[in-house]
User: Fold O-methylsterigmatocystin oxidoreductase from Rhizoctonia solani.
Amino acid sequence: MSRFAHYDTLLNLDRIGWEDFLGMCKYGEPARGMRRLLHTTMNPRAIQDWWPQQEQEAHKFLRKLLYSPENLNMHIRHTAGATATKPTYGYNVKDGSDEYITRAERALSAFAYTSAPGRFLVDFFPFLKYLPWASFKRAAAVWRAQVVDFAEEPMKYVRTQMAKGCGEPSFVANWLQDAADEDKPLIPYAAGSIYAGAADTTVSAISTFFIAMLHYPEIQKAAQAEIDRVVGPDRLPSFTYHDSLPYVEAIYKEVLRWQPLAPIGIPRKLASESDDEYKGMRIPSGTNIIANAWYMLRDSDVYKDPERFNPSRFLGSHPENDPEDITFGFGRRRVYAPLINQIELMVSTDDVQEPS
Assistant:
């Protein structure tokens, strides 16, 4: 059995409805079932089928940015949601305000607010959860309803489209048709986990990219020169150029390292009755564990001049450690978001400067 099977989240996620999502649920058959579902659609070979759609959404983002750069944050969030919902549900996000994006961000905001350790007294005094008049219970009921809405409403859309015979290809449609019966109840949570894992990380990484380009314009110029040399000045890069743009890929890695997507990992507790051991260090049963990704990716023993944004650290014959091993999570609960092509496109077309 994997070491990670013994570590449970410290958060009282059952209060707000997140306890069934991958990365939040206890390791066991439900988690294994969701991993089986995701493996059929999120493996490196299968994900290539969705490259054209990912590129299409990135092109839409560039057009929006061209016409209204002052709405950068809105464009980033909209694009991040669209790149997750299309392959997952076969749903085309509407321009402007979109019901699904609004619903999803409401649920994710509730998670972000409630997941801070110690946010509520009940985190320190568990007996409070038995008090019927506790105020956090009323708030939790609202948040739980939002999370259920986030997981279940898109499923209704997919089923309706399939019944009409007009549904577009999607992960959920494939699972509803092909998944084992015992895994089908997990589909809403596996699908929601894709959105939660991809959309927020994409927003964070793309925002960091723009900040970095403002502070280090010389890096932007070097990347644009590489793209002009490899792709040419009259076309946009695509996934097929990925292996031919090492400096741009290094920018992507440095974005992940410089401002980690999740600086502090979700708190875990060693839930097994026996102690654990890691690299000669004993971890007593019941120990609380928090992975400090920020420190790991700013460790001066591993990364030279870690405060500086320097993509060149990942080039040459002796590159520094790949931040992907840390930034997307640890062990069996890792998630992945396809960001590299979006960064390639933005480098090739944008001249990121402060407003004059």
Summary: Confidence is low (pLDDT under 50) at residues 332-337. The radius of gyration is 21 Å. The chain is about 50% helix and 5% strand. The domain at 3-349 is CATH 1.10.630.10 (Cytochrome p450).
